[in-house]
Amino acid sequence: GGYFFWLELDRAVDAQALKRKAMKAGAGLQPGPVFSCENGFGNFIRLSFAHYRREAIREGISRLAKLIP
Predict the structure, then answer these.
(1) Per-10-residue mean pLDDT for the chain, 69 residues long?
(2) Cα 26 from Cα 33, distance rounded (Å)
(3) Are 29 and 67 contacting, i.e. CB atoms less than 8 angstroms apart?
(4) pTM of model > 0.85
(5) pLDDT score, position 44
């Protein structure tokens, strides 16, 4: 959607908990439940690619990959 990638992660991943970990690691994401009126999309994340340089995106992906089981 738009300037974002939507990623579906394993059902065991809690996107809101992942966001807290990501912030501590210096990476950002939006958890799926933020975009659901019924608290759905618990294992989905939204990543923006519009405002960041390639190098920053690569670094952010690297940091996130270390946090996802």
Answers:
(1) 88 96 95 92 94 93 93
(2) 21
(3) no
(4) yes
(5) 97
Number of H helices, E strands in the chain: 2, 3
Q: At a CB cut-off of 8 Å and minimum separation 6, what does 11 contact?
A: 43
Dist CA 19 CA 9 (whole Å): 13
CA 53 to chain centre: 17
Burial of 60 (0-12, 13-18, 19+ CB in 10 A): buried
b (16+ CB within 10 A) / e for 14-44? ebeebbebbeeeebebbbbbeeeeeeebbbb
Asked if 45 and 31 count as a contact pair (C-beta separation under 8 A), the reply is: yes
The whole-angstrom separation of Cα 66 and Cα 4 is: 21
